[in-house]
Design a protein that fits this description.
- The structure is a single chain.
- The protein is about 80% helix and about 0% strand.
- It is mostly helical.
- It has one domain.
């Protein structure tokens, strides 16, 4: 989960750094700055970042699930053995 959130943050930071370096996106509405695309293009790109984050979560959950099941079964077996 943290990896997905970190990836989304890095992608957003990269988006703003690249756009500000190219002067194609301005927070303050300065003069002489032209937007290379409309806000819909930016929103589509941001949604793509969220899709990447969700994909990371979907891929990571099945990897951790067998470990969680094994740990819970081992704990249950220890309790049953003690009884």
């Amino acid at each position: 989960m943290y990896c997905a959130l970190l990836t989304i943050h890095v992608l957003f930071i990269r988006f703003f750094v690249v756009r500000l370096a190219e002067r194609s996106f301005d927070f303050f509405g300065g003069d002489g700055v032209t937007l290379d695309g409309d806000i819909g293009d930016y929103i589509r790109e941001w949604i793509g970042y969220f899709i990447v984050g969700v994909a990371i979560i979907v891929v990571a959950v099945p990897e951790g699930l067998p470990l969680a099941v094994m740990i819970s079964l081992a704990f249950s077996v220890k309790k049953m053995l003690a009884d």
